[in-house]
Design goal:
Blueprint lengths: L1 H35 L20 H5 L13 H4 L11 E8 L5 E10 L19 E10 L3 E4 L5 E6 L2 E14 L2 E13 L3 E17 L3 E12 L2 E4 L2 E4 L3 E11 L2 E10 L5 E11 L4 E10 L12 E9 L2 E9 L5 E10 L1
Antiparallel strand pairs: 1-2, 1-18, 2-3, 3-6, 4-5, 6-7, 7-8, 8-9, 9-12, 10-11, 12-13, 13-14, 14-15, 15-16, 16-17, 17-18
């Protein structure tokens, strides 16, 4: 009895230390980033802006506060460590109709890997034994733009900028309460010319309970690291993003999420989201979602920053929807189809 209590106290002490270490590391990174390069005055200095525009409808509805909340295949975009929570194969496709005729797409597939041999330390690994692998593609089409010369006069020509990123990642639980993940990206951007580069994503998550009752997740991730898009002589780094996220589940059906985000070409900003699950039978369920992000509040006139959405699931199929206003630019709509099997 005393031994079990001692082990429990040791685990709590380790978790508190890891949480403190993660928070301290994230605070240091965010503070250093804000001072060195992550400033509002750096807006426009990074290429591949589509990499910051979100992915799935659930994330869009929750204010993009998904650093700790993403636990399905879409975690490949938000934080690859969240792939560790995937227990079934998950295929997802998202279509986004954004402001100013901008269109986005995101398709992803996550597959838990069954162990080829019995793991030696089964208690420190998830049931899959080897974590989850995921592949995906993120796409943006900015529509047709009329050409102008250096005096602002129309030339009669048109071009269609578009961006795409091929993504692959892995996430697994390496200890009772610790998940880690790694992702790779190949980015292709085309305006009139084209540029290509690669990038790396990495993340971790700590899972435990507050007051031995409320599930809590603390997460840290870094995205779009190491790439530079070079058009002719001009080279622009990708918009590296550091995200400190956390979720709390006060009730089994209620999730609260909050992120602190720092992007290379903007000042750090907060984002919050919430989700209420609505069971409707053995095979049916739904959800209501809302969120707020400070990312666009200082840049746009009119209503912006808020978001709303809902979900409906029946058996293995699901549909998510998100709506968000972008001030004078218009509004954004995202629709996601999910299949879990």
């Amino acid at each position: 009895m005393g031994t079990d209590l001692e082990k429990s106290n040791n685990r709590r002490a380790i978790l508190r230390f890891l949480a403190l270490l993660t928070t301290t590391t994230a605070t240091t990174l965010l503070g250093t980033a804000a001072y060195a390069a992550f400033k509002a005055s750096d807006a426009g200095t990074a290429g591949g802006q589509f990499l910051k525009m979100g992915a799935d409808a659930r994330g869009a509805a929750m204010g993009e506060a998904m650093g700790a909340a993403a636990e399905d295949a879409a975690a490949l975009y938000w934080n690859p460590a969240g792939l560790a929570a995937l227990e079934r194969r998950h295929a997802s496709a998202t279509v986004g109709l954004l402001y100013q005729s901008v269109q986005t797409g995101f398709a992803v597939y996550g597959h838990p890997v069954a162990p080829m041999v019995e793991p030696v330390r089964r208690r420190e690994l998830r049931a899959s034994g080897l974590g989850t692998l995921a592949v995906g593609v993120l796409y943006l089409n900015a529509g047709r733009i009329k050409e102008r010369d250096n005096t602002g006069n129309l030339t009669g020509g048109e071009f269609s900028p578009r961006d795409a990123a091929l993504m692959a990642g892995w996430g697994a639980s390496v200890a009772d309460h610790l998940d880690i993940g790694l992702g790779l990206k190949f980015v292709d951007s085309r305006i009139q010319g084209s540029a290509r580069t690669g990038a790396v994503d990495a993340g971790m998550r700590l899972r435990f309970e507050l007051a031995e009752e409320w599930p809590y997740v603390l997460a840290l991730s870094a995205s779009n690291l190491g790439g530079t898009l070079r058009f002719r002589e001009q080279g622009d780094p990708l918009p590296a993003v550091i995200r400190l996220g956390q979720t709390l589940r006060p009730l089994k059906s209620w999730l609260i999420s909050a992120d602190a985000v720092a992007a290379r070409d903007n000042a750090p900003y907060p984002a919050v989201g919430t989700e209420v699950s609505l069971p409707a039978g053995e095979e049916m369920s739904g959800a209501l979602r809302a969120g707020w992000s400070h990312r666009t509040r200082g840049d746009l006139d009119g209503l912006s920053g808020i978001s709303f959405g809902f979900a409906f699931n029946w058996s293995s199929l699901g549909i998510d929807y998100a709506w968000a206003p972008y001030g004078v630019l218009g509004q954004a709509n995202r629709l996601t189809l999910n299949y879990r099997f």
